[in-house]
Amino acid sequence: GVVNGLAWTSLGGTTLAIESSMVHDGSRGFRQTGQLGDVMQESAQIAYSYVAANLQQLGVDKQFLDSAMIHLHVPEGATPKDGPSAGITMATSLVSLTTGTPVKRNIAMTGELTLTGKVLPIGGVKEKVIAARRAGISEIILPADNSRDYDEMPDYLKEGISVHFASDYRDVAELCF
């Protein structure tokens, strides 16, 4: 399960691949690596809990995680990362892994995820859209509550990118799977 995320940095925006893999089966567990800060670790835990609680609705065998050690990694491990905005990207990586369905390479996303599946607004929309353009991404998923931030951006930054707004994780899953 590899998915493109969008992140804000002090230098602007960037794309961020998020990977998840089943390390082994036999005992349940969840590990995260990539020098994640406290808030990002919590986002990973929320994504895992949301996916685990909603396996059937997401089209996954509800016993899948019972005996699976899952490893979620955010590459460039030497670079510290933090913040809540990778929540929907982490959940999508986990759903991709558990369903065996790859996510399109030309889509990227950002949004905080709650335990109940709500997609909350994030910061740095303009920087993240610019990063997506630079990376050749043609579709972006943003939180619905960030639609005004997007609408206020100059049109030339929006050209060539299809933007979808999500208020619930089900919206994200429909676009990706």
Keywords:
7-stranded mixed sheet; 177 residues; globular; 6 helices; alpha/beta; Ribosomal Protein S5, domain 2
Structure commentary:
By secondary structure, the protein is of the alpha/beta class. The chain has a single domain (2-176), classed as Ribosomal Protein S5, domain 2. The chain has 6 helices and 9 strands, in the order βββαβαβββαβααβα. Strands 3-4-2-1-5-8-9 form a 7-stranded mixed β-sheet. It has a two-stranded antiparallel ribbon with strand order 6-7. Strand 3, helix 1 (38-53) and strand 4 (68-73) form a beta-alpha-beta unit. The longest helix has 16 residues, at 38-53. The model has no long low-confidence stretch (mean pLDDT 96).
How is this fold's topology laid out?
Blueprint: E1 2-9, E2 12-25, E3 29-33, H1 38-53, E4 68-73, H2 87-99, E5 107-109, E6 112-113, E7 119-120, H3 125-134, E8 139-143, H4 147-151, H5 155-158, E9 162-166, H6 169-176
Parallel strand pairs: 1-5, 3-4, 5-8, 8-9
Antiparallel strand pairs: 1-2, 2-4, 6-7
